[in-house]
Amino acid sequence: MNDPRRALPSIHVLLELDGVRTLAEQVPRQVVAEAVRAAVAAARERPADAPSTDAEWSADITARLAARERPTLQPVLNATGVVLHTNLGRAPLAAAAINAIADTARGFSSLEYDMGAGARGSRHVHCAALLCELTGAEDALVVNNCAAALVLALNTLADGRDAIVSRGELVEIGGSFRVPDIMAKSGARLVEVGTTNRTHAEDYRRAISAQTGALVRVHRSNFTLDGFVAAVSPRDLAAIADAAKVPLLHDFGSGLMLDLSPWGLAGEPTARDAVADGASLVVMSGDKLLGGPQAGIILGRAAHVDALRRNPLARALRVDKLTLAALHATLRLYREPARALREIPALAMLTASAEWVRQRAAAVQAALAVHGVPARVVSTAATVGGGAFPSSRIPSWAVALDEQPAVVDQRLRDGERPVVGRIADGALLLDLRAVAPDDDRALTDALAAAVAGGSMPRGAVARGASEDGQEAPNDR
User: Fold this and answer.
1) Average pLDDT over the chain, rounded to an integer
2) pLDDT for the residue 276
3) Is the model's pLDDT at 153 over the cut of 70?
């Protein structure tokens, strides 16, 4: 009996195919050769599915090469309805921040050079003044994320000493990272007080001793406790810390700079509120509700911030010039709150009216109908994400596809610019709240291609979105 694998073409023959030789003009020949070997190996494993013509071999090799060369980090359309989706990179940057990155990246910069003195300077000065202006803090420091800020602060204040925290605040954050584990890595000894649901001022007072390095408060930004509960307010805890002459470290996480209660998002303190409550140090994220790049921001009393700045760990946890450029540009927008709400994408998405989102979903549905794609517009409940406002639901709208939802979902994720939605109640939902208006047309084209049996061709350029160029209104 003849083995069909004996008839498979050799690597050399395949490399000489016209379509494959064209590929070798675009990428190194050895990379093309690896794709050819992979194609032949797959054919040996499943000879019944092996290409049978030169054109089929060229197409198979081209597809394998494209998959191999595709970056693992790529732009994505977030149609999940979760605005600050951690897995999708959290906050998209404002145009001002993107421009600042480009300006800083294309040449040299004053990262650690004092122009006035003509001598070495410090990268820590670049965002500090603006952070103090916006929050009322005495001093500020930027590191690479909020967990790093917590570790640096605890290592500086309580290395080898006690860090007292309520049991009800020992939270687990994304990726199975737990606050107790992070605290332990700082060198501090964790001292738990109170119970899961109730912690009182006297619990802290009884735990304070000569071994206490700091009191710690962790804002419950990714869950809520209801019912028979009690907690000590940040202001009261600051008074206890001051009376005992120990520092209070407040991790409030979200990075919220503006009150969003007019848009139905209440219960999160702003950075200015957290500083005003009297903590020695306040730590927060830069890429959550602040809407900037990934960063850990430390605010507080000058003496404590200076001690952190002098800790050798600060060098290991420092941020680069591009992060500082993006963060500074984002913070400048907050000098005009209306402008921040309009130009910082995360804030614009969170405060856009439900009616505006519905109109966009209806426009996408109408455009899909032109392509012969049946779709519905359905009401949904979006969420903030990033652990912020965990119990809040934001009225939103989505385009729903009922036919082969899992198949279309996979094709969308395999596209040139992947689209991530969610499947619920047997339908694929593409929520428009976290999709930038300029991407509505790209979403439509990707959906039409996926339903038709493929994905957007590589190299295709999706046109800009709304024809009238309107911006999302910030009123609900």
Assistant:
1) 91
2) 97
3) yes
Domain-located, residue 395: yes
Q: How many domains does the chain have?
A: 3
Give yes or no: residues 133 and 83 share one domain. no
| Selection from 406, 399, 354 nearest residue 373 by Cα | 399
Same domain, 113 and 199: yes
What is the predicted pLDDT for the residue at 122?
Answer: 94
- The whole-number pLDDT of residue 467 equals 30
Q: Half-sphere exposure of 107 toward its Cβ, with a 13 Å CA cutoff?
A: 3
Three-state secondary structure of 281-302: EEEEECCCCCCCCCCEEEEECH
Domain CATH number, residue 410 = 3.90.1150.180
Indicate the pTM of the whole model.
0.89
Asked whether residue 341 is domain-assigned, the answer is no
CB 325 within 8 A of CB 100: yes
* Sign of the alpha-carbon torsion through 351, 353, 354, 359: negative
- Angle 45-47-52 (CA atoms, 0-180°, nearest 5)? 135
Could you tell me the pLDDT band of residue 174, with boundaries at 50, 70 and 90?
low
Structure token pair of residue 153: 């602060």
**327 lies in the same domain as 202:** yes
Per-residue pLDDT, 447: 96
Task: Answer yes or no: is 24 within a domain.
Answer: yes
Give the range of the structural domain holding residue 212, as residue numbers without chain letter. 94-336
65 and 82 in a single domain? The answer is no
Distance of CA 196 to the CA centre of its chain: 29
Token match 């494993």: residue? 45
Matching residue, tokens 């979403």? 443
Cα 275 to its chain centre, rounded Å, is 24
- Own/partner contacts of 169-175, CB < 8 Å, gap of 24 or more, are 169/216, 169/217, 169/218, 169/219, 169/220, 170/218, 171/218, 171/220, 171/222, 171/223, 173/147, 173/222, 173/387, 174/86, 174/387
Radius of gyration of the chain (CA): 27
| Range of weakest confidence among 169-183, 296-310, 420-434 | 169-183
pLDDT at 180: 85
